[in-house]
Structures are given as structure tokens and as C-alpha cells.
Amino acid sequence: MANIEQIKFRTKVCFIASQGILKTSESTLKLNLSEQYILSYLIENHNTPVTKDDLLKVGWPDRIVTEASLFQVIRALRVKLNEKNKGDVIETLPRVGYQIREFTREHVDLNQRKVSNIISKINKKTLFSIGILITTLFGSWAWYLSPSQTEPTHFLIENENMGTNNITFITTNLEQQLDLRNKVKAIFAQQINQHEKITTTDKKIYLYKSDDFYSIAWCQISLETKQCKPMTDFSYKIAPDEWHKFTQLIIGNKKIFHENNCILPESTPDPLSIVYRSYIDNYGMISKISNFYISPTDKSNIFDYSKVSFIADKKTGRYQALSLSAESLTINQKDSQFIATLKITPKVFHWAYQNNANLNQNKAVIFSDDDSESNSYKNNTVYYNYIVAAQKRLQLIFGKNSGLYWLHSNKNIPLTLMQSTNYQ
After folding, report:
1. How far is CA 421 from the centre of its chain?
2. What CA–CA distance (Å, rounded) separates 383 from 401?
3. Any idea what the Cα angle at residue 217 is, between residues 211 and 220, rounded to 5°?
4. How far apart are CA 221 and CA 228, in angstroms?
């Protein structure tokens, strides 16, 4: 039998040293040689603190490198080992080095695993068929009882300084993390190649990747206040196969922040907040503006929450109404990965621009946010957004389906009352 040893960590990631790979129940990831050497050495010496000098010799046996190279490998291993909190697997020992304490050794029969995987797939198909039947029988009447209850998604969040920029990567798995990191490094490398320096400087950058799109938001940071400078914030939502268009935008140093363009109905109730956003897909780049209204109710931390969205006509530049919606918003500052979790319960949604039935055919990413909300209302499903960063009259909002966007607040709406955070 083909038996191999694997090391299983508390994060449910397994290391197979003989193959130099990390495995989870969903994916396999190949480590580079330095990562393999260092992780193997930490495992072999798990009962003893390992110094940085030892790891430098182990990780790069044929050459001399600085501690910066070691820090980069440790940081990459933390991401690939799915550490939710620093030290979940690799513990930092101040003024000493690093140590791994908790793991289990397992022996796996590869032949048996292949058989188990086949059986598992068959069982999944059977369960899926049963699930469809149950859903068909009971789903229609259950919808009317109450909105579907879901739980907030747990995200993999990593921070890294690149040049004078601080970058936050938000994903749901390791592969997405690595993809984002590689894309950012490629942009900086192209900037150096074309301009002989990194032209993106002193920015706080947030990136998110889902299976269906990329989302990026950033702002220029004031070195004195450590907060966003006015009119330097922007956010983009990008179709997966159109990332090169965004890269060209950044490399070419083209204008990358929004116009101060506000669209207000004739009678505008207070309070009002505005979102400026751009979308990139095979239709090109299209701008969108959304007006948000948030009003208190008689219940604590629960608000009436509605918005009207407008998109720009590419020929005339004029904005046309796209959609309007109304929902109930509950703000929860406890047990959140971010500053706060926003629980959104649907009430009303209406398309003003085009029929929802045509969206799947058009494949325009600009419609994806509203299309997702439309489905939430149609399926009566609660969904969640998050406050990622905040300062006076400016908040960064994030949603699993909507991505990242800046909320400009003209009044002291409830979201502006969240505790401000420095962008570093």
C-alpha cells in the first residue's frame, strides 16, 4: 500500500513533506523549496525554539539572504496554513525566533483515499438529489414564514506593506489570497519597469476576490492624520477576465478617483450618503452612483435602510436610474471580524433600468450587485455587509457579493458613529 505521513495542524491544513504540498479538504497547494525547508525544520524541532539564523541557513542553504527573506516566507506560510490569528500554527518568540507546538502525525493510504473520494462523490450526488426533492416539497411554503437566516461569512484576512503602501487582502481561501498577492506584485513590477519606481505610494489598499469578480478600493493617506485625503478614494469591481484593463489603468497613471458628482431627486430626505463606483468588464468601464438613506426605528441598533442607484450612459455621460430598494439594517459590533457587521433584511426591490430576466444574458458586472440583491428579495434571504474601516463621514463597506465600496456620509448617520480607525 502507498502510505505517506502527513502533518495535520489545528487549522485543518495538512502538510505532506514528501510531496512538498499543503492540503485541505478542498484544495492542494505546492510550497516553494524555502517554504518546504523551513516548515519541515520547524516541525522536526517542534519542542525547541528555532532561531532566525538557523532558519536562514535551512531555507537558503546555497546562498546568503537577509532576514527580510525569512519574514516573507513566514508571512507566506501563515497565509497558506490558513492562520486566522497570528500564531495559530507558527508561534513568534520575541528576540528568539519561531516555534510550532501543536500538530498531529497521520499516515494516509493513498489507494484507500482514492476509493473514499469516489464513494464520497457518489454520496454527495445522492444527497444533492434528495436535497433538491426536499427543497421542492417544502421550500415554497417555508419562504412565507420568515426571511431565510444565514450566518456571516468568515474571511481570510491578511495585511502586508509593499513599498509605502499598506495592503489588506480579503478572501475565502488560500488560492484567492495568492492570486491577489501575485497580481499586486505584478502591477508594482510593471510600474518599476515602466517608470523606474513604484508610482503607487502612501495608500491604504483593500482587495477582495470572489469566484465571480475582483474588488479593489483605496485612498491616499495623509502622513499627518493617517486618514484618507478628500477625493482620493475610489473603488472598482472587475470581471475576472478583465483584470488587465484595470492593470493598464494603474500602470498608465490615469485618473483613478471619482468625480464629485452628486445625483439628488427633487426632494431629498435626510440623512443621505453617497457611493461612487466604477465597473470594468467586456463592455468597458461604467460609472455608478448610489444614494443611501438610513433612518432610526423604535428598536435599538435597527434602522430603515434604502438606496437608489444610477448608472452613467457611456455616450451622453448622463446618469439613469438603475434600481431602488428598501430593507431593515441591524448593526452588530460584537463578534465581527471587522468594525461591525451589518445584517440586512430585505423588504422591497425594484428594477428601474431594465428587466432582471435579461441580466444573465448580458453578463454585465455593473448589474451584479443589484442582481444579487434582487435574488435576496426574491428568495427572502438575509445577507450581510461589513464596516471595514471608518473615519468622519467616510466608511469602507464590504459585502461578499457586492465587494468593497466607500460610503460618503453628509450627515451623522448611524454608520458614522462607528469607532474611527487609522488606515495603517
Report:
1. 19
2. 9
3. 160
4. 5
